[in-house]
């Protein structure tokens, strides 16, 4: 019995200066999609985080193609298995306010993790 090969690769973008709450809106749009379809969709999304998420997805798919150089893996054969947006460190700043007061400003950072995998043959035939 041959061991089955797991065709998946991961890419991580850390310390991205965008709030996780805003990036999660973009990540939710493409979760579970084919990589090609997700890239086309992100091209037309009017959100500041869309190019960032797109970049990480491209990186993960390139990692998969590099990992399995001996096999021809097309972008159309890949799908997004997992996409997570986690909270990174927060820069804490102070905004001066009237009457000697100060209001806190939290500049949040994010970590984006994307795992792409090759679709099974059964999934490719159905589409």
Characterization of this structure:
With 127 residues, this protein is an alpha+beta fold. Helix content is 35%, strand content 35%. It contains 4 helices and 3 strands; from the N terminus they run βαααββα. The chain has helices spanning 20-30, 35-43, 50-67, 121-126, and strands spanning 8-16, 78-96, 102-118. Strands 1-3-2 form a 3-stranded antiparallel sheet. β2 (78-96) and β3 (102-118) form a beta hairpin. α2 (35-43) runs antiparallel to α3. The radius of gyration is 19 Å and the shape is elongated. The mean pLDDT is 91.
Number of helices: 4
- Could you tell me the radius of gyration in angstroms? 19 Å
User: What is the straight-line distance between the termini?
Assistant: 29 Å
Task: Identify the strand order in the major beta sheet.
Answer: 1-3-2
DSSP E strands, number:
3
SSE arrangement, N to C: EHHHEEH
Structural class: alpha+beta
Contiguous low-pLDDT stretches (5 residues minimum) are: none
Percentage beta strand: 35-45%
Oligomer: single chain
Characterize the overall form.
elongated
The portion of residues assigned to helices is 25-40%
Give a quick account of the main beta sheet: strands, pairing sense, barrel closure. 3 strands, antiparallel
What average pLDDT do the residues reach? 91
């Amino acid at each position: 019995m041959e061991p089955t090969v797991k065709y998946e690769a991961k890419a991580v973008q850390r310390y991205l200066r965008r709030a996780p709450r805003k990036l999660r809106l973009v990540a939710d749009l493409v979760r579970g999609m084919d990589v090609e379809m997700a890239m086309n969709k992100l091209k037309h999304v009017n959100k500041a985080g869309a190019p960032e998420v797109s970049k990480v997805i491209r990186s993960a798919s390139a990692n998969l193609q590099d990992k399995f150089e001996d096999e021809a893996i097309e972008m159309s054969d890949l799908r997004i298995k997992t996409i997570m947006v986690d909270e990174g460190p927060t820069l804490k700043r102070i905004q001066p306010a009237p009457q000697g007061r100060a209001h806190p400003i939290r500049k949040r950072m994010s970590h984006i993790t994307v795992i792409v995998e090759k679709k099974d043959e059964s999934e490719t035939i159905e589409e």
